[in-house]
Amino acid sequence: MDNASGTDAFYGGIPIFRGFSRLMDPKLYARLPDDWTIGVADIVESTKAIAAQRYKAVNMAGAAVIAAITNALDGREFPFVFGGDGASFAVAPGDLGLAREALAATAAWVKEDLDLAMRVALVPVSAVRAQGLDVRVARFGPSANLSYAMFSGGGLGWAETAMKRGDFAVEAAPPGTQPDLSGLSCRFEEISSSRGVMLSVLVLPAKGVDAGKFRRTIEDIVDIVERSPGAGRPVPSDGPPLRWPPQGVEYEARAARGGSLAKRRAVVLAFTLWAYVIMRFGIRVGNFVPSDYVRQVVENSDFRKYDDGLKMILDCSEELEAELTKRLEAAASAGILRFGLHRQDAAMMTCFVPSAMRSDHVHFIDGARGGYATAATALKAMPI
Fold it and tell me: Which one, of 140, 172, 220, 186, lies nearest residue 352 by Cα?
């Protein structure tokens, strides 16, 4: 099994499903092959970094994992999920060496350039199944442009816990090692809530809960959101705000390769000014049409996902938040689930755009005042 066929033959063969309300249908999920490996990464003490208002750096670190692996695999599709302060993914045996090098380099870059500690691990699927758990993956298509992976089976959660114990650790590369983060950017401004509150939502199954009960509850929660205006989508139809110079110029300069940081910063400033003018005035450049790109940004945003639990960043009304809270509290009292919610006034977007000429650019959404990481803190405070 060569590198290309190892990843493409399995993941590329999974049918893409439309309609987020179907996410709990077990028939949509395929078991990862036994010889695959799960990659997990997160920021150590991300709560402290968020308390220091370093939300953008934390998100940049999580997105960097996905960018580095994608570039290492020459753009081949593989299943991954962005978690705000980290990321998870899976690779075939032939891609394991490349993934290990990219993970190690990313951990080194995060330490040197973002002044954050990232722990990373590679966990064999066989080790997960030895625990009586599984790793299954589905492909959700939020638009015709691309698909996102969804994970079920409990394996990702176990792998993350094992990583935090120090198991299956990947050592960071030597200082100065630079991953290929081409396409990683954060040029858009924060997205203010237009409906009242930007709500981070995390929902996990309670220990030992009946799978059918949990599935029905998640489907009820998703139905409540689907009936709300815009299904709670946090990115407005005309796209996120764009200004110059962008807030994320320093992070993009640090992610670039070649020359001193001052030189990279100057290059990024010049390029983002050119891009801003094109977007601001709707100037068509060759086959690039700004209005089409903005539409794709909106459609491609990953504001809701499933990886052993439901994760959403919702722009919602106070009434919707109250309805969701009431439903979640009732389900928690019934021993069906555990949840964490976090209110904030805005969301943020971190982008991975290997080519603006393609429609499959990826846009990761998190809350701008703590997001998923703060919601996870609330969840951890609940009884298991």
Answer: 186
Q: C-alpha 372: how far from its chain's center?
A: 10
- Percentage of residues in the chain with pLDDT exceeding 70? 98
For residues 139 and 147, the answer to whether their CB atoms sit within 8 Å is yes
Neighbouring residues of 295: CB distance < 8 A, sequence distance ≥ 6: none
Q: Where are the beta strands (DSSP E) in the chain?
A: 16-17, 30-31, 37-43, 80-82, 86-91, 118-124, 136-140, 148-152, 184-185, 191-192, 197-205, 304-306, 310-316, 337-344, 346-352, 362-367
For residue 151, which of 139, 159, 162 has the smallest C-alpha distance? 139
Residue-wise pLDDT for 152-200, tens only, equals 999 999 999 999 999 999 999 999 999 999 999 989 999 999 999 999 9
- For residue 271, is pLDDT > 80? yes
Question: Of 61, 59, 105, whose CA–CA distance to 313 is shortest?
Answer: 59
Helices (H), 52-95: 55-72
Q: What value does the CA radius of gyration of the chain take, rounded to a whole number of Å?
A: 20
Q: Is the pLDDT of residue 5 over 80?
A: no
Q: What is the C-alpha to C-alpha distance for residues 384 and 381, in angstroms, rounded to an integer?
A: 9
